[in-house]
Design a protein that fits this description.
Layout lengths: L11 H13 L10 E3 L22 E9 L3 H12 L5 E4 L8 H4 L11 H4 L3 H4 L10 H14 L6 E2 L4 E7 L4 E6 L4 E9 L8 E3 L10 E4 L5 H4 L14 E5 L3 H13 L2 E6 L5 E2 L8 H5 L5 H13 L12 H14 L19 H7 L6 H7 L1 H26 L3 H6 L12 E2 L3 H4 L5 E5 L7 E2 L3 E4 L2 E4 L2 E4 L9 H5 L2 E3 L6 H4 L18 E3 L11 H22 L3 E4 L1 H14 L4 H5 L25 H14 L5 E4 L5
Parallel strand pairs: 2-3, 2-7, 3-4, 5-19, 7-20, 9-18, 10-11, 10-18, 11-14, 12-13
Antiparallel strand pairs: 1-8, 5-6, 6-7, 15-16, 16-17, 21-22
Helix pairs in contact: 2-19, 11-14, 19-22
Length: about 625
């Protein structure tokens, strides 16, 4: 083992071994199967606690566009369509209002870890001024309401309704959309904007049905039971013993409020989160109102530039995300000849030798490799990552009084094995006498009993169990969306994608005409997800406007274009498997079973490159790769 360097303050070999040990103890053979689907006896976990149920008569209608999903993707699609002159559309949303993940996630402390000035889309169009650099759930819902009001979206909405099936009617040239409320809606076009984080998941713990106390999932927070609001003040918990299962991003935000309110709080942890400083601040309205037209997109692209490896002269956002990449890129650039730019893909290629061996010539001048050396380059990236995570671990030690608790809260994995968290109060909560961290050391829980949670020979009796166990991410599309899509010649989307994703630009799928998919699949993935959704909305609006002007009403990806795009995705794919396999299990690496199919990845060139590619495609004006025609049926 290498001796500890006085210059760096840690032993790299020791950390590599520690990371490996922490990963190994958490590896499971069941992967995503360790979670239960919220159906049957568990269906109450997904019921809407925020509005009264409404009864409505089934609708039978024909409309030009149906948008499935009323989160940011859905309302952006609707807003951009409205801007282009399309008013005949319906938005089908299972919640009681618009909001998507922000409608459901109203737990106390819910907030966004992306700067509000770039996370909120359409800020220049609405004139809205966020109150803080990082927004919270109430303000996000307020802003979604502002967008809805500006573009009159509520009049087009069908709320509290879930789609159950989408079927192509060849003899009508329309899609038939069926719902759980008996609706039969026909549409020329369908936009699937279900969102990647919409279906809660529960751990498959023995005895989960046996508990006699109160339970709920964080995405369906029960304020009738806890009292208070998303701002906290959970006064009904003052005489309650509460358990929360999970310490991911959601738990990081709500644990301080539970710790403040509950008589006793037990936090059950399998893997600690990486928690850095948040340092939120109020918006300087004078600065905001003086921003020049075009500032919003410039700021979003500046943020993306850092996350995709484009070294920017100025960091406009200057937050925890960009700080990570400034440090990494700065370290690498200091070893390189002047004016050499390095492009790094942010979720994995960043740390894999195979990435550099396979794809380095696409991103670096040959002399960079010969000047720096591949091993030296990789070592620099790894060392910067070690240094950053050492600071994260040191912060836990500085803030948390009890040494054993502090040690349990230290994350031993690479920076992007899990989504980084930023919070100023979470770690302090463990200094409360009423708060107990139950570290399962990667094992998970033994069982749930009638009285509470049993782990390692001890039963923790509680009045309430809160599941902060996240959402389904790696499961099949139809399971996450809740409906099947049946296209031409009775081809289902499940059958189409059984051997891997097949799309054109991530949005079109041959065999499913007049259909548009929103999401990161084979497209431009970014941590600032609303940016990607806005780009897709612009693309959708352009295509439909172009077709309308040409008198066309049928669009489908050509066989050649779809094949070529899949080949491009595979060619551009970063070999992330080695990095992901080195990570502790989580939804980033499919619970320790990384995706091995390169075609299931986002576009490997990064979000900015993808957005630029789509912009050039639109500018060309020929709808390349799409078969556009007149359908005689409508």
């Amino acid at each position: 083992m290498a001796a500890k360097s006085e210059n760096i303050g840690f032993d790299p070999d020791l950390l590599r071994n520690k990371y490996r040990e922490e990963r190994d103890k958490r590896l499971r053979t069941d992967g995503n199967d360790q979670y239960k689907e919220v159906e049957g006896d568990f269906k109450y976990f997904v019921e809407d606690p925020y509005v009264e149920k409404i009864e409505k008569s089934p609708e039978n209608l024909i409309t030009e566009v149906v948008i499935i999903g009323g989160g940011f993707g859905g309302i952006l699609a609707a807003s951009r369509l409205r801007m282009s002159g399309v008013d005949d559309f319906k938005i089908i949303e299972k919640g009681g209002n618009f909001g998507g993940t922000w409608y459901w996630n109203r737990y106390p402390g819910a907030s966004c870890d992306i700067e509000s000035y770039i996370y909120f889309p359409l800020l220049e169009e609405t004139g809205f001024i966020p109150k803080h650099k990082y927004t919270n759930a109430p303000e996000t819902l307020e802003y979604i309401g502002k967008i809805s009001e500006k573009f009159n979206l509520s009049e087009n909405a069908i709320f509290q309704t879930e789609v159950t099936e989408v079927v192509w009617l060849e003899n009508e040239g329309l899609w038939k959309i069926l719902t759980n409320k008996g609706d039969d809606i026909r549409a020329k076009y369908v936009v699937h904007s279900n969102g990647p984080l919409n279906r809660p998941k529960l751990p498959a713990i023995e005895g989960i049905n046996d508990f006699k106390g109160h339970t709920f999932h964080t995405s369906r927070w029960d304020y009738q039971y806890t009292g208070g609001s998303s701002k906290g003040n959970l006064e009904n918990l003052k005489d309650k013993k509460v358990a929360i299962i999970g310490t991911g991003a959601t738990a990081v935000q709500c644990i301080p409020h539970l710790g403040e309110a509950a008589k006793e709080l037990y936090v059950f942890q399998r893997t600690p989160s990486s928690i850095d400083e948040r340092n939120n601040s109020e918006t300087d309205e004078e600065w905001f109102t003086k921003l020049k037209p075009g500032w919003h997109n410039e700021r979003r692209e500046n943020f993306e530039g850092f996350l995709t490896g484009n070294f920017q002269q100025k960091d406009l956002v200057n937050d925890g995300w960009t700080e990570i990449f400034r440090t990494i890129l700065g370290s690498i650039r200091s070893s390189a000849p002047s004016k050499i730019t390095m492009f790094l893909w942010f979720l994995g290629g960043l740390f894999t030798r195979d990435f550099y061996k396979k794809g380095i010539k696409n991103y670096l001048m040959d002399k960079f490799i010969s000047h720096v050396g591949e091993d030296n380059l990789m070592n620099k990236v790894e060392m910067v990552d070690f240094e950053k995570m050492e600071k994260i671990r040191a912060r836990a030690e500085e803030v948390v009084n009890d040494p054993n608790t502090a040690e349990s809260l230290k994350p031993y994995y690479r920076q992007f094995c899990k989504r980084p968290c930023f919070h100023d109060e979470n770690l302090k909560t463990y200094n409360r006498e009423s708060v107990t961290l139950v570290d399962t050391d990667g094992k998970g829980l033994d069982k749930i009993t009638e009285k509470g949670i049993y782990f390692d020979g001890k039963e923790y009796e509680v009045d309430c169990i809160i599941f902060a166990t996240g959402f389904e991410v790696g499961t099949e599309y139809t399971r996450r969306s809740g409906y099947e899509i049946v296209g031409k010649n009775n081809l289902s989307i499940s059958e189409k994608w059984k051997d891997g994703l097949v799309t054109y630009h991530g949005m079109h799928c041959r065999g499913f005409p007049n259909t548009f998919f929103f999401g990161p699949a084979q497209g431009g993935f970014t941590a600032n997800y609303t940016h990607s959704l806005d780009e897709q909305s612009i693309h959708l609006s352009y295509i439909l406007d172009k077709m309308r002007k040409e008198g066309k009403n049928y669009v489908e990806a050509s066989e050649e274009a779809e094949k070529n795009w899949v080949d491009t995705v595979i060619e551009k794919a970063r070999n992330m498997q080695a990095f992901q396999e080195s990570c502790t299990p989580g939804y980033y690496n499919n619970e320790g079973k990384p995706n091995t199919s390169p075609q299931n990845n986002p576009y490997g060139g990064g979000s900015l490159e993808f957005f630029s590619l789509m912009k050039k495609w639109r500018k060309k004006g020929s709808l390349d790769g799409l078969e556009v025609q007149i359908n005689s049926f409508n």
